[in-house]
DNA-binding NarL/FixJ family response regulator (Kutzneria buriramensis), 396 residues
Amino acid sequence: MARVRVFVQAGDPISAVGLASYIRAQPGMLVVPSRLPADADVALTVTDRVSADFLGALTKAAQAAPLPTVVATDHVDPEQAPSLHRCRVVALLPRSAATSSRLASAVMEAATGGAVTSLAEQADNLRREIAGPDGAMLAPRELTVLQLMADGHDTPEIADIMACSDRMVKSIILSATKRFNVHNRVHAVACALRAGLI
Amino acid sequence: MARVRVFVQAGDPISAVGLASYIRAQPGMLVVPSRLPADADVALTVTDRVSADFLGALTKAAQAAPLPTVVATDHVDPEQAPSLHRCRVVALLPRSAATSSRLASAVMEAATGGAVTSLAEQADNLRREIAGPDGAMLAPRELTVLQLMADGHDTPEIADIMACSDRMVKSIILSATKRFNVHNRVHAVACALRAGLI
DNA sequence: AACTGCGTTCGACGAACGCGCAACGCGTTT
DNA sequence: AAACGCGTTGCGCGTTCGTCGAACGCAGTT
């Protein structure tokens, strides 16, 4: 292969030219114009979080020109992880720690189709690298309570679903709010949602 | 002024080189190395959302070298808006629609200290430009209340921030929960968060 | 076995929330 | 002017939440 042709895609122009600069600085790569995705070997995208919306856009783009895709992001929604391979995503990179060499090697591997690590494993690595060791700090019960609250259930309903008393549910919420240093249950749910934990 | 010296700052390397590329492409501007913020005329930053954390980092940076600052972002937390001028923020741009000319003119105005529109007005314009016509599904006050709740504030705090009574805040929440057919305020915040409205 | 720390469970009380009803100001309609 | 809608605020009620304290079981320590 002569030079790897990279199709660059981003939700905002700033990130787009940032990615393009990285690729242009690589001797073995060049950026293909956004009008000609079919001429590329690899797609390179960046996003705040891999959400359903983002994957939808990716799917649409993949129908026009199916390319192996590298994604730079800081978060992958757990429920979206299984859909990644359908969009031909072959590599996940940490956006906030994307070095020139990491980007380049990921794009090169994607272009040559080599060394495809499991996407689930990559997503896990990403979560660990981004969130640090804190990400694993929630107990399973806390997770359940947070999810149920986010779905609109109040304390007695949660107690019923989890087969325990109201007091227990409140205790779980209390311990979680104190440990994460948030003000109340709304704040806790919002933080968990933003952190992608639920 | 000979050339405008711009100090570029971003949470991730991709956006940083993106911004730098934009500035370098401008004939009248140059990028100062990140080690020499004191040599710059203007600071240019980019962030997903103007949160308390982001403003904290900005404040710390401003202590080292107080510069008029241009921020490219897609969202400004309403409660942070009053703090913007303390961090010497003079312009807000839509990140997802940041064109070369908009960036350049904002940086130039910041450097010359001219044409300072009200920051609150700029924040409003930003919200309108980002959300588009879909954002019209929620009234502006509902959006504010939801954001404040997501940041952990309770009813009297929100009433204080929005300069109205507790009853009014509750009325806004009540009308929103009825209109969106959700069970309570936690559910409302979770839905808004998942829909990307806040 | 007695002690100690830690997580779990429950009771209780003040504060906050969910919500209906009534009233006031203010612009628009007729 | 009268009628109407709409946003705002207040009052009050029952329900739920936030939080402290205490009791219990269960490791590991000595």
